[in-house]
Specification:
homodimer; alpha+beta; Nucleotidyltransferase, domain 5; 3 domains; five-stranded mixed beta sheet; globular; DNA-binding
Amino acid sequence: MRATGSNREDLRQHNLSLVLRLVHRAGSISRSELTRLTGLNRSTISDLVADLVTLGLTIEREPESSTRVGRPSLNVSVVAEVACFVISPGYHSTTVAVVGLGGRVIAKRRKSTRINPNPDEVVETAIELIAQMSRDLPTKTRIAGVGVPVPGQVNILQKSVRFAPHLNWVDVPLGQMLEDALGLPVRLDNDGSLSSSAERDFGAGKGFDDIIYLFGGDGGIGGGIIMGGNVIRGSTGYAGELGHVRISDSRTEDSAGLPGTLEALVRREDLIEALRLDDADDDELHSALQGKLPPKVSRLVERQIDYLALAIANLVNIFNPQVVLLAGFLSALYDIDDYRLVNQVRLSSLNGARERVQIRTAALGSNLLLVGAAELAFAALLNDPAETKLFRIRDVKKPKP
Amino acid sequence: MRATGSNREDLRQHNLSLVLRLVHRAGSISRSELTRLTGLNRSTISDLVADLVTLGLTIEREPESSTRVGRPSLNVSVVAEVACFVISPGYHSTTVAVVGLGGRVIAKRRKSTRINPNPDEVVETAIELIAQMSRDLPTKTRIAGVGVPVPGQVNILQKSVRFAPHLNWVDVPLGQMLEDALGLPVRLDNDGSLSSSAERDFGAGKGFDDIIYLFGGDGGIGGGIIMGGNVIRGSTGYAGELGHVRISDSRTEDSAGLPGTLEALVRREDLIEALRLDDADDDELHSALQGKLPPKVSRLVERQIDYLALAIANLVNIFNPQVVLLAGFLSALYDIDDYRLVNQVRLSSLNGARERVQIRTAALGSNLLLVGAAELAFAALLNDPAETKLFRIRDVKKPKP
DNA sequence: GCATTATGTTGCCCTAGCCAACAAATAGAT
DNA sequence: ATCTATTTGTTGGCTAGGGCAACATAATGC
C-alpha cells in the first residue's frame, strides 16, 4: 500500500497547493471565493495567501470595482514573473513557448528544422530559441521547469520517448538531453494526454471528469483518457493510444503496423487526396468538405464517419465517459454529418453507457497544447509551493557557440 | 474543482482511516509495522490504535512469539464482532454471506430460486437467509452494511441495476428495495469491478496498480479496470464492459446485441457444446480441454484463443496495464496454450505497451467475489472510522411472515 | 548478567486551522 | 448625508493532533 500518514506539514502543503492551484486556474480570484471553494476559514485563507505572497508566487490587490454588498474582497492573482518553457517538437519545426503561471502564453517562437529532425537537432534548436527568448524576459523572471509534449509514446518516469512515428524516433532520452543542456528540470508527456487535460481545464471539457479525447492529425490519430478527473497513463505512460483501437478485420495497417485500427481506416491523407488538395490545414480541409461533394468523396467521408463511430462506440462501452471530444480533422468529420456519427455510435454502443454521453468538437486552439504542457512544468510547484525550487533566468544554460 | 481544504479533523480522519485499512487488509499487524508503513510517529500510532480500540473496531494483544531483537511489538487485529452482509444474486440461486472486518467469510448460505428470478424474489430470499444467519451470530455483532455484486450494469449513485442480461433485469431499484427491507445501508457494484479490486487486494493482482480483469462466465464476459490503483467506473458506473469490445466484422451478436465483440466470439457454451459436455463447471471444462482434442474442437479453441488475444491486445494498447488477469473459462483457454495466446497478443499490440505486460490467471476462488463485495459494505467505515454508524444485529429488520 | 536493540509510554512542544470580536468597506434605504 | 445591513479583513487566543525526547520495558545474544 502506497498511502502514507499525514502530519501537520502535509496538511499545510495540501492547503497551500490547493489555494495556489485555484489561483493558477482562475488567473485571478477573490479571497472570499477561495474561502468558499476550499471550505476553509477566512483567517486560514488569509494566512495561506500571505504565505504564497511571501513565496513570491501570488500578489494581492484591491479589487477594481465592487458590485455586491459588503466589504470588497481582496483579489489574489498569480505573479507575472514565474513561468516555464514549453518545447514542442514537430514534424518539420520546433516551437518554444514561455508560459506564465496562470496559463498565459507570454511568448512563442518557432523555428524550422529538417523533416524528421534528429533529437540533437531539436535540442539544439530548443536551447537556441530559449536563449533568444530569455533575453526579452525580465531578469527577475523565475523558471519552474520545462514541459515537452511529444507526438508519440513517452515513458514518463525515464523521461524518454519510446516511439514517435511522426518524428521517426525510437528510444530517445530526450528528457535527459534537455536537462543536461538547460540545467532545468524537464518533464515529458504524450501530446494527446496533455491536450485532453488542457481541454478539461480550459477547453471544451471544462467541468467534466470522464473524458475521451481523440485527435486526428497528419501523422495519425492520438488520444487521451481522463477518468475520475485523472489522466489515465497506464503502467509506463503509454495508455491512451486510441488510434490503435481495432475496429475491423481490414488488413490496412496504421503507422504502428497494426491492421484494421481506427488510425488505419480514418486517414486525413485519404481525404486530402480524394479532394485533390495539396497541403491543406484543418480549416481548409473543413471548408473543402462543406460544399456538395462528388459521390466518391462523399462515400469516403461516410465510411470514415462510420469507422470513427465504431471506434467511439467501442470506447464508450469500455469507459462510459461523459463526453467524447474530437479534435483535428476528426472534428471536421463531426461537423459534416454529426447526425450520422451520433446515430452510428448509438447503434454500436451499450444501452446504459451511451445514454448521457455527449460528442463534441474540442476547443482546440494551437495554444492549448502549450498550456497543457506548461501544466507539466508547473506540476511540482503546484504540488508543493513552499519547497519547490525555482530557477533564475540567468542560471539557464546558454548554447555553446 | 472538487478538491477542498483540509483541517485538523480531516487529518485525524485520514490517519485513522489509513490505520484501520492497514489492519483490515492484513487482518493482524504489529504496531511497529504500522509505524513503518504509515511513516507516522510511534506515539501517534499508539494514539490512533487506542482510538480504534475505543471505537470497538480493533483489539491489541501481546504477540505470541518473537523472533527478533528488541521489545516485541503489540499486535493489532480486527475485532470479530464487526461484519457485513453480502447478497449475491445468481442465475438460479441467491447467496448470502456474512463477512467480517478483515475479509474473513464468517458464514455463507445459498438458496435456490427460479431461473431468472424476479427482483422481489431475490429480496425475499435474501432477507430470509439473513434472518436465519443472524440467529447464529453473537448478539453483540455490529453490521456495517450490505454489499451487492451484480452481474450486469449498475448505476452506483442510484443504487439500481441498469441491465443484467443474466438475470433478465432492466432498471431495477435493487438498492432501495433492500434498504427498505433490511433497514441497512446497501451498496451495489458490478461484479467484474468488485472481482478486479478483490484480485488486487487479495488475489493474483496483489501489488499491481494497473490491472485489466476479464471474467468469462456462463452468461458472457465481464471485466474490470483498475488504473493507478483506482477502479475505473466511468460517469455512471458502467465502465468496464470489456466483453463488448469489438474485435471483428463478424455479425455474430453478443448478449447485448452487439456484433463482432469478444463476448460474441469467445463463448463458453460453444466449448461445452463442442466437447459434448452437458453442464460442466469450470474445473470440469478445464480438464476436458486438457487431453488430446478432436480437430474440430481444437480449431474452435484456437479460434477462441486468437480472438481473446485480439481483445487483450486492444485493451493493452488502450490501457498499458501491468497485468491482465483472466478468470472463469478464460483462464482455461490460457492454460491450454498460453504460448499461442501471449504470442498473438504480442502481434497485435503496440511495442511499448506490450513490453512489460503480464498475462495471468486470476486467483479466483468463489469467496473472492464475496470479499470484494464486502469491501463495498465496509467502505464508509474504512473511510471514516470514528463517525460511521454501525448497526446492531437485532435492529436488522426481519422478514414478514 | 550485561550489552544491544527495538518498541511502548509519557509529558511537553509546536503549529495549523478555528473562532469570536472588532474593524473596515460597500450597497441601499431614509 | 446618515444609518443599517451585509460582507470581508484582521487580530489574538484556543485547541487538538502529530512530533520529539527521555525513560521504561522486553526481547536476543554473548
